[in-house]
Design brief:
The strands form four sheets. Strands 1, 8, 9, 10, 11, 12, 13, 14, 15, 16, 17 and 18 form a twelve-stranded mixed β-sheet that branches. A four-stranded antiparallel β-sheet has the order 4-5-7-6. Strands 2-3 form a two-stranded antiparallel sheet. It is an alpha+beta fold. Helix 10 runs antiparallel to helix 12 (354-363) and helix 16 packs antiparallel against helix 17. It is built from 17 helices and 20 strands.
Length: 535
């Protein structure tokens, strides 16, 4: 490593000061998050934890979602046109957008088309100088088949970009608003490459977003400073701090003491306490999410559909909703909730029935049961607020039908990495949709493309199902798409590679002094509009 850079890197990543226990100043907002992000580059992350730490703080995309909804709105692209055959998109880029000036980078030019090409082609082209940096695995981009969909990304002029697709793709524009399509600085990349430090692009981030990166202490804090040159509405709060606090009860204590002004995912047991506290507000909304149990279909005995169905019958999902969510969720039968278009209840369902479970196990050749492991979620997420408790209940249910379960877990980053590698047998996970399209659930979580990319946690690849969800992408006829997705859900329920558990509400705890918070259906928090009362 460059000797001049090493001390700076240590200062930025390893020596950030701990938060004091005093309430922060009025120019600072502390956000109590639930875990450490896997990376500070949304191109290579998948979790909601990383999404909030990067997407709405550091970066922008060509388009974004309008506040509180799923309507696509201009962002770094001011306008766009689509060809009659739905295969060519031309974007007119916003002028005068500044990249962050930080302790480690001073930009010499504004955002332009070169940055779009740099960002998209890093994920698309194997010969891009940054493609292999960090391992060359772009879980979301590749998992959604974008590497097969995008034929080319071309520069028309400094402020015009042409993207050509290999085929029409109905959700393509909304896909561009998603975190993994964030825009990075080509100039910064070039300097890192010249300095022999390309990996820093994922560690020391530079974007155009409302906040710039200041420092990161793993499992402790991420610090951001307001970007005074932000092209959009300027952030009203100067300093933003993510206080990484995995324990929900500790997050609430910090809120009560005024050490945090926003906290994610409160414990269901604390909701009424929060409602009764005049210093706090509870934000809540039905969300597009799913908490599920995935079985690794590449490993026995879960490569046997009879075993998977037996496990589904053995689990008392209503009991989990009652005990883990305290009723603040609905039992799921599909991988996305009834509020999503194309939903159908005409699928095979698995009510709690230990007798049927034992019969299926006997039919599968496991009359005496078997032993396995179940990984429990190490962080509280809206789709599963207490993975350990749910794991213990699942363990007890499965023991009743002869399946001996050992529970295990890991820190969040390790957990995700091991699942991506397919090391698990059964694992708790979940998903919060982030573009309002069924494709965002079915293709991302269950397509063949997503198996090796790390977002298909059951590693399920079934030809009939895969064709249905692929065909649904290729038409913009909503009725045709809806019918295809309903058929896909029916096929999925027969195969049961994942067991849908619950669709939950999303909660945030807010200081009563915080203004401007807009609840987001995709479980993303936007910080630029926030301010304090009485300032």
């Amino acid at each position: 490593m460059n000797k001049k850079i090493a001390p700076l890197l240590a200062a930025l990543l390893g020596a950030a000061p701990q938060l004091s226990h005093a309430a922060p100043a009025d120019d600072t907002l502390v956000y109590c998050s639930e875990g450490s992000p896997e990376s500070l580059n949304p191109q290579i992350t998948l979790s909601g934890t990383a999404r909030n730490a990067t997407t709405t703080t550091l970066y922008d995309r060509l388009v974004d979602f309008a506040p509180g909804g799923s309507r696509v709105a201009p962002a770094l692209a001011e306008s766009w046109t689509v060809s009659a055959d739905q295969k060519t998109y031309v974007f007119k880029l916003r002028r005068g957008v500044k990249f962050h000036k930080t302790a480690f980078f001073t930009p010499s030019r504004d955002f332009n088309a070169d940055d779009v090409l740099f960002s998209f082609n890093r994920q698309l082209k194997a010969d891009h100088p940054f493609h292999a940096v960090g391992g060359g695995n772009y879980q979301y981009f590749q998992g959604m088949g974008m590497d097969k969909l995008i034929a080319s990304v071309g520069k028309i002029d400094d402020y015009s970009v042409r993207i050509v697709l290999t085929r029409p793709e109905a959700p393509f524009l909304t896909d561009l608003a998603m975190p993994f399509m964030s825009i990075l600085s080509a100039e910064y990349g070039g300097r890192l490459q010249k300095a022999g430090r390309p990996a820093d692009i994922d560690i020391l981030p530079v974007g155009t977003g409302p906040y710039a990166f200041s420092s990161y202490l793993k499992d402790s804090t991420i610090r951001y400073a307001a970007n005074p040159q932000y092209w959009g509405a300027k952030p009203k709060i100067r300093n933003l701090v993510f206080a990484i606090t995995p324990d929900a009860s500790v997050r609430l204590q910090k809120m009560k003491k005024g050490e945090c002004q926003i906290a994610v995912s409160p414990s269901p047991a604390d909701l009424q306490i929060i409602r009764d506290n005049r210093q706090l507000r509870l934000s809540e909304q039905d969300s597009m999410n799913i908490g599920y149990l995935a079985m690794n279909v590449e490993k026995p005995p879960f490569n046997n559909v009879l075993v998977r169905r037996a496990v589904a019958y053995a689990l008392n999902k209503q009991a989990y909703v009652n005990a883990v969510y305290l009723g603040n969720a609905k039992v799921a039968i599909n991988p996305y909730p009834p509020t999503m278009w194309s939903y159908t209840d005409k699928v095979q369902t698995y009510g709690y029935d230990p007798v049927k479970a034992r019969a299926l196990l006997a039919q599968a050749g496991y009359a005496k049961g078997f032993s396995t492991t179940l990984w429990t979620l190490p962080v509280s997420r809206p789709y599963n607020p207490n993975g350990r408790k749910m794991g213990e209940m699942m363990q007890a249910d499965l023991a009743k039908v002869g399946i001996k379960v050992e529970l295990a877990t890991f820190d969040w980053a390790t957990y995700l990495d091991k699942v991506k590698r397919g090391e698990h047998q059964m694992v708790q996970l979940g998903w919060s949709g982030d573009n309002g399209d069924p494709d965002n659930f079915l293709y991302t979580l269950l397509s063949c493309d997503s198996v090796t990319r790390g977002s298909n946690n059951s590693r399920y690849c079934q030809p009939t199902f895969n064709k249905l969800i692929s065909d649904a992408r290729r038409t913009d006829d909503a009725k045709v798409r809806s019918k295809l997705y309903q058929q896909a859900l029916q096929q999925l329920s027969k195969d049961e590679p994942i067991i849908p558990i619950a669709h939950s509400k999303v909660y945030r705890v807010l200081s009563a002094r915080v203004n401007g918070f807009v609840v987001n259906p995709f479980d993303m928090d936007y910080f630029a509009p926030l301010s304090y009362q009485n300032r």
